[in-house]
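Write out structure tokens for DNA-directed RNA polymerase II subunit RPB3.
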Amino acid sequence: MNAETHTTIRNISKNSVDFVLTNTDLSIANSLRRVVLAEIPTVAIDLVEINVNTSVMPDEFLAHRLGMIPLNSTNIDEPPPVGLEYTRNCDCDQYCAKCSVEMNLNAKCLGEGTMEVYARDLVVSSNSALGQPILADPKARGPLICKLRKEQEISLRCIAKKGIAKEHAKWSPTAAVAFEYDPWNKLRHTDYWFENDADAEWPKSKNADWEEPPREGEAINYQEEPRRFYMEVEGVGSIPPNEIMVQGLRVLQEKLAVLVRDLDEEQPAQMTTNEVPMDENPEMNWSPYQNGGDAAW
């Protein structure tokens, strides 16, 4: 139980990392999963000023699609100009170069065919890599924003800001986080619903190869806790998957440090009954039986 926590990386690629977390408990593993999903800062388009939009797509649809485009968020926690400040912590009134990235999109269809507008058509005002659209497809075009026909036009300005997915999903650096423990269900934490055969209707995952199957007639220890967890993190491209996990651990450490600090600050002010000297608390020393008196009831 006191063994050191160990991580085994099974596979890592440009967009995902697959690893096994051993010698820890469910609370730590699940906390890491939740932090990776919702509390790692990235940059995403937050404000859209539309000057011209004669496309078939309404303004609000267009703004929503722009907000979901993954933007390069590497080193976003560094001090400006390398990274960004949160707008709420910046000294400016609305936004500035320290807390935002400005980009423009101007497109007009002049031909007879259909013109497709992609994320690559966004022009970032700064020369920094921060805030650049992620172009992960083979043709390096990025997500499709809209389509224009002859004489249709869009002209707009975007302001991208720093945030976390707890505020809005557009700031999430992950597309999905797979999480599993006890693939053979030895702990009986899962009740299988099945019609005929549970083994046939609930096939085992690839993680079952990493553990021994239960022996026939093996007793169930209902007090046992899971100690091995299988996680696969798939990123959207704004942050490399290995960096996502590093930042997730850092954010979790910071949250725990704040908790420890607050508990240490409150501890002197909170004294239990046993710590208060009886002669310094006359009200606690009072009793209806003192000096031979009768009970109060």
